[in-house]
Specification:
Blueprint lengths: L1 E5 L8 H13 L4 E6 L1 H4 L10 E5 L10 H7 L4 H11 L4 E4 L3 H12 L9 E6 L5 E4 L9 H18 L7 E5 L10 H12 L4 E6 L11 E3 L2 H27 L2 H20 L7 E5 L5 E4 L5 H14 L3 H10 L10
Parallel strand pairs: 1-2, 1-4, 2-3, 4-11, 6-9, 7-8, 7-9
Antiparallel strand pairs: 5-6, 5-10, 10-11
Helix pairs in contact: 1-10, 3-5, 4-5, 6-7, 6-11, 8-9
């Protein structure tokens, strides 16, 4: 496998992205890594480079505050665009970027393209609960149609079977404001009907936000606007809960003594909810494995994301395309 890495994307680029890639390269000697970035910026960081790491020259990164499509049109040599073209041409088998999410999605759609049957792609991320749950979409398609949510259910089922190694068909839930089929707005009700009628999905019905970590579903489907809000809220709540625990323990001498005894368990909880354990989110629905890292990824997050790409295995895109090709057409569906 050859992975193109946009080393200029992200808040901590290029230092942390390069460091994480080099660690992954030593850990995965049979995988090749193509660092995509400005030679003058990246070159000085490449000391003691493993033989399975090369550098591909590019322009600069698409900044977080730039409008993605406009930036890619103005600068076709941007690092994420060059990495996407490597994936399209077959010079790379997968792409990783921790930069501007919109730019990564736009570059993938522009240079890699969608798989047949997929109107819009979805970003799938693993929520690290005791029962890991795959949530999609978390930001690729803000305004969805019911057919998109059906596609997400199918894509998520295939991916969860591989990545989460579920026993049997992954159970799929639709994120909604209530469990009853008639709950929610028109999109939710129509999506519920389509997913429930699909023989390709082990549908368990509507799932409320409080049930995301309950184990009721292995895959939870929603539109990109809602999914992104849920993801960011979950990350913020996790950080705040950890802060409150720290305050409770370190606010007094007795608490500090208790914290020493509880430290191993507290660290285990912190590590469980740390998004860097998974490192990246897969963009499903495009003709090549594209993984989007957290904007503030450190070297550990980058390393784990790259290992996750290998873990998902080859042939993922073909399997996703076959699954969508078996779906029955939706009345009034547009390409």
């Amino acid at each position: 496998m050859r992975i193109a890495v946009d080393v200029l994307g992200g808040d901590n680029a290029p230092q942390e992205v390069v460091a994480g890639t080099l660690t992954a390269a030593r850990r995965l000697p049979r995988v090749s890594f193509v660092l995509v970035g400005e030679p003058g910026t990246v070159g000085p960081l490449l000391e003691d480079v493993p033989g399975n790491v090369t550098l591909q020259a590019s322009g600069g990164a698409v900044r977080m505050d730039e409008e993605p499509a406009a930036a890619l049109r103005a600068r076709p040599d941007a690092s994420v665009a060059v990495a996407a073209r490597l994936l399209r041409s077959g010079e790379a088998d997968a792409l990783f970027s921790a930069g501007n999410t919109g730019a990564a999605v736009a570059a993938a759609l522009l240079h890699v393209g969608r798989i047949r049957g997929c109107r819009r792609p979805a970003i799938a991320t693993v929520l690290p609960f005791s029962h890991p749950t795959l949530l999609l979409d978390v930001g690729a398609t803000v305004a969805c149609r019911a057919q998109d949510l059906l596609n997400f259910a199918i894509l998520g089922s295939v991916f969860a079977k591989r990545y989460l190694e579920t026993e049997g068909a992954p159970r799929v839930g639709l994120l909604n404001v209530g469990e009853e089929p008639g709950k929610g707005h028109d999109l939710a009700r129509e999506a519920h009907r389509l997913i429930a009628e699909s023989p390709q999905v082990a549908f368990v019905g509507n799932v409320e936000g409080r049930d995301l970590g309950s184990g009721k579903a292995d895959v939870v489907v929603t539109d990109g606007f809602t999914g992104n809000a849920v993801l960011k809220t979950a990350e913020g709540v996790a950080r705040e809960c950890l802060r409150l625990v720290r305050e409770a323990f370190y606010g007094s001498l007795v608490g500090r003594v208790a914290a020493l005894a509880a430290r191993p368990r507290l660290l285990a909880v912190r590590d469980r909810v740390d998004p860097e354990n998974y490192g990246g989110s897969f963009l499903l629905g495009v003709r090549g494995p594209v993984v989007i890292g957290h904007g503030n990824s450190t070297a550990r997050g980058v390393e784990n994301a790259l290992v996750g790409i290998v873990r998902a295995g080859g042939g993922l895109v073909d399997e996703l395309e076959v699954a969508l090709s078996r779906r029955q057409p939706v009345h009034g569906e547009e390409a």
